[in-house]
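Worked problem 6 (solution included).
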Amino acid sequence: MEKQTKYIFKYIAADSPQIRKKLVGHQGMVVWLTGLSGAGKSTISFVLEKRLLETGCLAYCLDGDNLRFGINENLGFSEQDRSENVRRIAHIARLFKDACFIVIVACISPASHMRENAKAIIGTEGFLEVFVKADIKTCQQRDPKGLYKKVQNGEIKNFTGINMVYEEPAQSNIIVDTEKNQINECVGYLFSEITKRIDWTDDK
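Solution. The predicted structure is:
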C-alpha cells in the first residue's frame, strides 16, 4: 500500500505542470523589469498586470519596493543585501512561474551579475528581461516616491544612480523608453510582446 501511494504521488507531481497549463490556458513566464528608481517600473507593472488579467491571463506583480516591507525587511542596501534581495525575489518568481502565472517583477537589480543570477534561478525558458529606460535627471524630476529628495537630505545612502552604479543591460530582450513614450504606449508594446511569446494551450 505504501509503495502504491508513493507511486501515485510521484505520478501526480510529474504530471502537474501539464495539468496546471491545461487549467490555466498558458504556461508561466517571468517578465523582469529593471531600471532606475523613477523610471516607471512599478507603474508599468501594475497596469500591465491589470491588462493581462482582463484578457484572461493569470498574472501577478512582484514589486521590489513592496517586498522590502515583508519578506526582505531585514535587508539593507549594501551590495550583498541587494544581491540577496534579488535572489529571494527570483525564487518567489520561479514558484509563481511554475504555477503558470505570468509574473511581472519590478526590481532595480542594478548589477548585471544580479540579473544573471535571477535568470539562472528562474530558467532561461520563459524569462523576459525588460530594460525600463530613463536617465537619472528624468528620474530625479519625477521622484514619485520622494526617494531622491531623501538622498539629497542625507536620509538614504547607497542609492542606485547617485552614489551606487546602475549597470545598464547590454542585451535585454525588450527596451521600453519612458522618456520618449507614454506609460500606456510602453504597456501596449509589452503586452503585445508577452502575448506573442506565451506558450498557450491548444484550446486557448
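Discussion: The longest strand covers residues 127-133.
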